[in-house]
Amino acid sequence: MQQKLGAGSPEPVQVRPLWLVILAAGLIVGLAMGLRQVMGLYMKPMTTELNIGREPFSLAMAIANLVWGFAAVPLGAISDRYGAGRVLAAGALFTMAGIFLMYSAQSGHDLIISGILLGIGIGGTGITALVGAVGRAAPPEKRPQALASLGMAAGIGGFIAFPYVHFFMEAIGWKSSLLVIIASLSLIIPLAIVLAGKPRAAAGMTHNQSLAEAFGEAFSHPSFWLLILGFFVCGFHVAFYAVHLPAFVTDKGLDSTVAVAALTAVGIANIIGTYAAGQSAKWIPKRYSLSIIYFMRVFAFLGLLYLPINATTVIGISIVLGLFWLSTVPLTSAMVATFFGPQWMSMLFGFVFLSHQLGSFSGLWLAGVLYDQTKSYDMMWWISIALALFAALVHLPIREAPVARAQKPLAA
Predict the structure, then answer these.
(1) Rounded average pLDDT over 234-249
(2) Binning pLDDT at 50, 70 and 90, where does residue 290 land?
(3) Reduced to 3 states, what is the DSSP secondary structure of residue 406?
(4) DSSP designation for 104
């Protein structure tokens, strides 16, 4: 018998098949994160036309990542409490506005404002806004694999987005290609309807936890803090490599198409690596998989320091790095659900992701500063190696188990 709602209560979302939730969420993530990853292609043409150095562009992209991290927490709480649909639609509009400001930019100051809008937008349309919806829809035994689908979708989005955007940059110019990106992002709004509505309780939930209880529980849990420290490194690596690789490649005398091919290869390899990471949760503890992922990144960065830089090595190293790219996401987000359950999953993963974006900000901004000072990225590769080793170690002490909590009956 259908339960009656109290006056003024938001209508709960209808139960939708898991495949439909994953499909809609995957398409949104693919569009939002795929098109976000191509911003590095605009570094050289935009800074050349505006007659500014690489630091202002790097700072704008760093600010976008930082704002994304801070926005992920309140937007995740709204998604957990009221549903992801309205957050996704608003995020799409903010992202489109940020891209339009890049199109019309006249100075580095305009780029910074664009970065703020982009950060809010991707905070509402990226993985952080959707892990809760997917995590609640999936039973616990299928949750890592369902969450892995979001990382795979982001990889597919990157795989398609780089040649897609590069084609339009060559065909109609870099500036007009930004209008194509805006039109493409508008598709998120109708897809958000599938995920609209107030979330229902996940299967097996026995405790209807308040927001204050969720905060207190999470920030008193040592393993949560270790997860936060490790995810900082992921953000540092991914943002630095994705945005600065096109400039690094052309600095070495290679054609710009090499960077497009390399970042496309990252997207393809990421699909394989993320799938494997989700499946690995069936056999080995997630913390060990994360340690392996970060340790393997060391070899990719060493290759950029010691191997001859040509098209083959850049693409080959990108394939290796792509295998360990967003494979951290299903494992990290699934551990948040393991610790605390799925009720406030988007918000709590948002806190972990804030650390990721602090890492993104640091990697993007520091790379711009060090390049302008030294005209080289060598120092950044060494810093990336040191951080990878740190992250490989910091995950080992994590205790992979639910927090102890007093059981309270779930409110109707």
Answers:
(1) 90
(2) very high
(3) coil
(4) T
The token duo for 106 is 């006249």
Whole-number Cα distances in Å, 336 to 69, 339, 399 = 16, 5, 12
Q: How many Cβ atoms are within 10 Å of 97's Cβ, its own excluded?
A: 16
Mean pLDDT within 386-395: 97
CA atoms within a 13 Å half-sphere pointing along the CA-CB vector of 109 = 1
Whose tokens are 């490790």? That residue is 230
Cα 15 to its chain centre, rounded Å, is 27
Determine contact, residues 108/45, Cβ cutoff 8 Å. Answer: no
Residue 11 confidence (pLDDT) above 60: no
The string of DSSP codes covering 37-95 is GGGGGGHHHHHHHHT--HHHHHHHHHHHHHHHHHHHHHHHHHHHHH-SHHHHHHHHHHH
**For residue 15, what pLDDT is reported?**
65
The secondary structure of residue 211, as a DSSP letter, is H
One DSSP character per residue, 352-393 reads HHHHHHHHHHHHHHHHHHHHHHHS-SHHHHHHHHHHHHHHHH
Strand partners, 12: 198
Which residue do the tokens 């970042």 mark? 263
What is the C-alpha to C-alpha distance for residues 126 and 79, in angstroms, rounded to an integer?
12
Superfamily designation of domain 18-193+210-394: MFS general substrate transporter like domains (1.20.1250.20)
Average pLDDT over the chain, rounded to whole? Answer: 86
